[in-house]
Write a structure and sequence with these properties.
It contains seven helices and 13 strands. The protein has 282 residues and is α+β, with helices and mostly antiparallel strands. The chain starts with a helix and ends in a 10-residue tail after the last helix.
Length: 282
Amino acid sequence: MNRQRLNGDLMLLIVLAASLACLGGGPGALGQEPPGAQTRIGIDERLGATLPLDDLEFNDEEGKPIKLRELFDRPVALTHVYYRCPGICTPLLLELAHAVGQCDLKPGEDYRLVTISFDPAEGSELAKNKKNNLLAEIKNREVPRDAWRFLVGDAENIRRVTELTGFRYARDRNQVDYVHTATVILLSREGTIVRYLNGVTVNPVELKMAILDAREGRPRSFMSRIGELCYGYDPAKGSYVLKVNRIILAVMGVLLVGFLAYLVRKGKNRKAFGQPPAGGAS
């Protein structure tokens, strides 16, 4: 009986080990990093770097050649993906589409979105299909087709733009897919990198604040300035965070100004009604 139980336990351990090996994904497992890829995959934030827009040329979703310079007539929200991606690319783009629908800045007017495939084997037809699907996901507003461009390119231009923006990726073990991370990169109209919004989740408030940062030097509304007061960019987190201390100081400032205004008004009212100074004759 003990020998049978021992054999049964041994068989159970073998089955569990085999199951874990399958779940862990052997060679060809989707999204698993190939050996040594850990040093090549991620984001090196190149804040302040400027892209040579005139030297970077791709093909758009219609198959027409286009230089990046032609798309930088306003701030740009740039994403690096590949259109066949079975992993995080589609969730990232869907999040971006939903954030665009909830952000009160107007795509095509206040900013432009540019998505570049980093797979040189992908063509304009894939880019066009992806564009149609993503534009259909944007709710609550009309988005001009020219406001979000989907590009493909050759290996050299892809290599240059990904290196310049610090986007590091590698082939998966299956030699078909890629291992990579997710980010939205905000650039000024001159092509200067201003912000990275890292991760799959795209917050509409963070997107708006990043666009406003990229639009530096242009007039901003009162509400935009209030938003800038309440939020600040945290480089360690790669996102905008609510600055509670700023809000407290602002509230205290408003209360102080209100109290001083009350005292001034009270003094004027005393004079208006001819009230004698304290201790005067009756």
